[in-house]
Amino acid sequence: MNHPVRIRRIAEEDWDAIVALEAGAYTALGLCEGRPALEAKVRASPATCFALDHGRRLAGYLLALPYPGSESPALTSREEVVFHSRNLHLHDLVIARDLRGRGLGKALVRHLTAGARQLGYEQISLVAVGGSHTFWAAIGFTARREVVNSPGYGPGSVYMSMSLPPEQAERPTAEHPAPAGALPSGAPSREYEVG
Ligand SMILES: CC(C)(COP(=O)(O)OP(=O)(O)OC[C@H]1O[C@@H](n2cnc3c(N)ncnc32)[C@H](O)[C@@H]1OP(=O)(O)O)[C@@H](O)C(=O)NCCC(=O)NCCS
Q1: Protein residues whose CB sits closer than 6 Å to any atom of ligand 1
Q2: Pick from 3, 68, 99, 105: CA 20 to 30 A from residue 182's CA?
Q3: Residue 21 alpha carbon, nearest atom of ligand 1
Q4: Which among 35, 28, 103, 100 is positioned nearest to 63, based on CA atoms?
Q5: Poorest-confidence range of 53-67, 75-89, 157-171, 176-190?
Q6: How many angstroms is it from 136 CA to the middle of ligand 1?
Q7: Dihedrals φ, ψ of 168, to 5°?
Q8: Using CA of residue 52, residue 55, residue 56, residue 57, what is the dihedral sign?
Q9: Does domain 5-72+80-181 have CATH number 3.40.50.620?
Q10: Domain boundaries, the chain
Q11: In whole numbers, what is the pLDDT of the chain averaged over residues?
């Protein structure tokens, strides 16, 4: 049966499902950060963090926050500072194991990228873990092997970034100003058709 896919902002009642998805994805890799650290990242930038519903089920999430280029948040840190940066750091992306390989991960990244351009970000960065750098490279991220990640990300972690071309970026407006701490509310939820 085909379930509708919807991407929307994260709500308080999502946390049990998000924490379960995170533990399922990262416990075996020793990279689990836990609810307080995840919540702090959403608090830092609610407009760039999203939940993905597959039918009535929360089937994935993506967390991103402004962060200085070539740096990355410590895994278990509770971000208390909101950086003023035109670099948006894609801190985490997880899709439920049984729903992987259907384009849901890429749909979340596309949603983020479109919103980031509207918000005036110029670059998206991330730390690829668990061998996922090939997934990110296929989307358009470039490995920046000169950047040294904190040891918390595990051996083989790769810092990557992707420029958001200025000609495709919409100029900041009064309604959507350039990022500077308090971001405007995020793009409205969207529905997607995926394979
Ligand atoms: C990475 C992840 C989000 C991808 O989500 P997804 O919905 O399966 O991805 P999509 O269906 O949009 O894309 C599938 C493609 O990505 C590839 N891919 C998916 N996960 C991958 C991984 N961990 N490493 C390498 N390639 C991967 C698939 O092989 C497939 O390639 P194809 O299009 O050439 O067939 C998902 O595998 C996941 O949640 N992994 C655990 C958490 C994780 O590692 N997150 C990234 C941390 S930086």
Answers
A1: 25, 93-95, 100-106, 126, 128-132, 134-135
A2: 105
A3: 39
A4: 35
A5: 176-190
A6: 8
A7: -95, -10
A8: negative
A9: no
A10: 5-72+80-181
A11: 88
